[in-house]
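A favour between colleagues. Tell me how you read the following sequence-structure pair.

===
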Amino acid sequence: GLTVGGAAPSITVGNPYLSPFRSTNLDLSFEYYWGTNGFVGLALFQKDISSFPQQVAGEFPLQAIYPQEIIAQIIPNITSATLAQYIQDGGVFAVRQFDDAPGGKIQGVELNVQTNFFFLPGFLQRFGVTANYTYISSELNYLTGTALSTVQGQTGSTAVNQFATAPFLNTSPHSFNATLYYEDGPLKARVSGAYRKKYVNRFPLSSGTCSVGTTTNAGGPCNSPVVADFGYNEDTFNLDFSMSYALTKEIRLSLEGRNLTNATQYRTMYQANPVSSSYASTGRILTLGVRATF
């Protein structure tokens, strides 16, 4: 049961009244075309995100969270008479609940180029290139810490929510990819490279109901901690190759090579003092195939 005069009970609840993700977007692009497939494009963009739901800490009676008809259904299922009376009296709870938190901003520029080498002599005209470069500056307010020291009968609030800014998840500040291709009758070949700068891939590292190194409101140790820090994917570069040859109109041979440089996927975690979390590679993958159409 609830010890009268001690720590307030705690609860973690959902929130069906969250606002949808909202953003104000501005886009501006310039494009120029030439020849049969020549293209260059420049795009500028900005997104102001006004809300981004996160689990925040607060202190409320259950009547401020649930409608009265839900409270009426909860009370008969509570075995502690002191807790039931505490709820009916509008006693304050230590609450963790998803709520509308501050959003952030994404802005950047994208450059695209595509052309074949029609201006070169001989067989070199069969070559071409496509390339894309994107720069993104992003900033989101992440909830990095909450603190609750709620006691029964308190009049003020002890809830503290701490935020820190970091880039949006899975958004590299710099990314570049390019493909060099060759096409001549039945023969097609291409080499493609893709680069991504280090980016945040995870937040939080662990979600729970209490902070590391603290006790719960019930006085016990924190056995479900929140680790409010960031995980990262380090810089990556992948190089792929593909080639095909049409023996007839119905049959085509193909050869593909992926991850030719045997690039690894290196992940770290913690913003201030990074440590390795995983280091792995799929290895080089070569595939030989035959495609037939009837």
Remarks:
- The chain has a mean pLDDT of 86.
- The chain has two helices and 19 strands.
